[in-house]
Amino acid sequence: MKRTALLLAVMCVAASCATTLPPRGQDLVNRAVQAVGGAEALARVKTLSVKGTVRQWEPEQSMDAGGEMRFACASTFAFVTDVASGATRIDWVRNFQYPSPRTFTFSEIVTPDAGYVAGIDSNGRTKQSLDSNPPAHSMSGPRLATSQRELRRGSSLLLLEMQKNPDRASAGADVTVGSATYPAVNYRVGDQTFTVMFDRVTGLPARVRTLDYDNIWGDVTYDVVLADWQTKDGLAMAFSRTYELNGRPVMEIKTTDVAVNTSIAAEQLAIPPAFKAAAAKPATGAVPYQWVIRRQFIGTYLDSDAVSYDPKASSGLRLVELAPGVQHVVGGSHNSFIVEMREYLVVFDAPVGDATANWILGAARAKYPGKPVKYLVLTHHHMDHAGGLRAFAAQGATIVTGKGTAAHFRRVLAAPFTRNSDLPARDLTATTIIEVTDKQVFSDRTREVGAYVIDNPHSTGMIIGYVSDARIAYVTDIWSPGAAPLPEKLTPPLAALVAGVKKAGISPAKFAGGHGSVGDYAPLAALEGK
Ligand SMILES: [Zn+2]
After folding, report:
1. How far is the centre of ligand 1, averaged over its atoms, from the C-alpha of 476 (Å)?
2. What is the pairing mode between strands 510-513 and 472-475?
3. CA within 20 to 30 Å of 163's CA: 124, 186, 208, 255, which one?
């Protein structure tokens, strides 16, 4: 027995068992490399230029909770990459439909150690972008890490990289998607693992998957589905790339032109020195990939290392007392609202994710010791205002949501979230959910706090809050008080708010916003009929 084991070990060394990729996985990679044109053809690629179109949908900005995805953006792009330096430039024209129609024309440069954006790419601009003329900014660490990951996922050269680095690859279990089962190889880059699934018939890569965390749906899969293979200069490339979030298509990239080894001027790929010096290194560890990707889908991503605020413009989240026992959580891209009752607290909105929720819970505990958050009122289901609900539920808060949304939140709270870096996994299915049909008033011997469902064009079942003794109301997304001057006429969302206030029979003096700050209500109400 002993001699056999020794013999096997010797044979193993001779046969390069030192690599972690067993023959089956190596075979899959080798076969795929052959299928796209061979290692030599791939190695001949020095530069790659691609033009195409992108369409994006955002499932968690839907009108109805759990309903049809919102169409977010249609784009055209011109992409160039230099293989030796690992630098890529993408020139974009992005026509957003949501949250408002607008066009952003800008360029991104992504290198191994820095990222840069020339132009305006978001409504959520950093101080550096606002201060730069013309507008430009360095990418944050999370944005750079996300861009690098997604460029690698979609790269025609990923297979060659896998073939060259067998120590980072390992054979995976077969993966079933719908009715298809794919043999797969896991490929590690830093702390990320790509699961590359192969077509049994053609040998071509069919899907490239990562296991991500989504602030609404918890543990999710994120796949690119490769299709429409066309051969250019001896290389087969997927001209159709569809991205699926938990099996739902959220992005389609269509290639319209490809050119191999055209010359690229060095300055096209150069990040201006001042921006390069200010640029963050790619973030590692708990990068909120889905947040970074999907805030860009709707053109609202705040390109900041701190995720929910810009450290150069804000010292961080803070409480602002609007009235005794009424706190506005401000300082970030999204606000929240805390109301003190005699024995407990009511919080409106759980924005961004559980890191923000943990901050709010900590600040509330410090300000009002011994008073738990008994109710978390979610104004609406959108991921940027509800993504921190788990941390509140984990502390025993009852979730209060608008008409037609309770079943959605029951499914959300039942979803596993083992990849949540801000909250240990636990069972939240016993969380109490109150669905408000019309209004719900929380009252004790000190004050009354109301949650009123109003009709509006942003989200079905939208709630506004109201603290009657302070005459302060709270509204998210249909008005952002203080963020911009009032228009001359009521817009449909503002008209909905004015109608909602009337229907609720409340008389607010001021509104605090889920975005922006605080504004007087009278000037808004006075726009009615103009
Ligand atoms: Zn919204």
Report:
1. 7
2. parallel
3. 255
Q: What is the pLDDT of residue 22?
A: 60
CA 453 to ligand 1 centroid distance, Å: 15
Assigned token pair, 315: 């010292």
Estimate to the nearest angstrom the gap between the alpha carbon of 308 and the chain centroid. Answer: 12
pLDDT tier, 20 (very low <50, low <70, confident <90, very high otherwise): low
CA 435 / ligand 1 centre spacing (Å):
18
* pLDDT > 70: percent of the chain: 96
Q: At what angle do helices 141-153 and 289-297 cross, to 10 degrees?
A: 80
Where residue 213 falls (left for φ over 0; alpha for ψ -120 to 50; beta otherwise) is beta
Q: Which tokens go with 229? A: 């293979």
Fill in the amino acid letter for 199.
Answer: D
Q: With a cut of 90, say whether residue 341 has pLDDT above it.
A: yes
What pLDDT score does 383 carry?
98
The Cα 480–Cα 335 span in angstroms is 10
pLDDT at 529 (0 to 100): 85
Q: In sequence order, what E strands does 178-290 have?
A: 180-189, 192-198, 205-214, 218-232, 235-245, 248-260
Task: State how far the Cα of 371 lies from the Cα of 442, in Å rounded to an integer.
Answer: 15
Ligand 1 centre to CA of 284 (Å) is 29
What pLDDT does residue 439 have?
A: 98
Measured in Å, residue 256 CA sits from the centre of ligand 1 at: 34
Where would I find the H helices in 298-450?
A: 354-367, 383-386, 389-394, 406-414
Neighbours of 256 (CB within 10 A): 11
d(CA 458, ligand 1 centre) in Å? 6
Cα 514 to ligand 1 centre (Å): 9
Tell me: the pLDDT tens digits for 27-39? Answer: 999 999 999 999 9
pLDDT recorded at residue 31: 97
Output the pLDDT for position 3: 45
Find the distance separating the first CA and the last CA of the chain, reported in whole Å: 94
Fill in the DSSP letter of residue 38.
Answer: -
Over its C-alpha atoms, the chain yields an Rg (Å, rounded) of 26
* Per-residue pLDDT tens over the stretch 149-184: 999 999 989 999 999 999 999 999 999 999 999 999
CA 321–ligand 1 middle distance (angstroms)? 24
Separation in Å, CA 76 to CA 79, 88, 93, 94, 343? 10, 16, 5, 7, 55
Q: Separation of 61 CA from ligand 1 center, angstroms? A: 6
